[in-house]
Structure prediction request, 88 residues.
Amino acid sequence: MHYKIKVVGRVQGVWFRKYTKEAADSFGVKGFVENSDDGSVYVEAEGSSDQLDQFLEWLQKGSPMSRVEKVIHSRGQPVGFSSFEIRR
Prediction:
């Protein structure tokens, strides 16, 4: 499965991308995370339904210093990511 995810709140400048990569790696999720110009964080994630459910649950909480207001996700076409990386 493939999800396109937007995380809104205080999610930039609080190590959110670093913690997101650690969470993705621990759940076996592949894809990437990057900051968006509007202050949100954009994620593309691939994995099994269970892996992505766990990952989305983690994103609702976020990193220790973040304050997640909402997580918006939609299904996309699988790309075949081989790892999870931090972009920009």
Observations:
- Strands lie at 2-10, 30-35, 41-46, 67-75, 84-87.
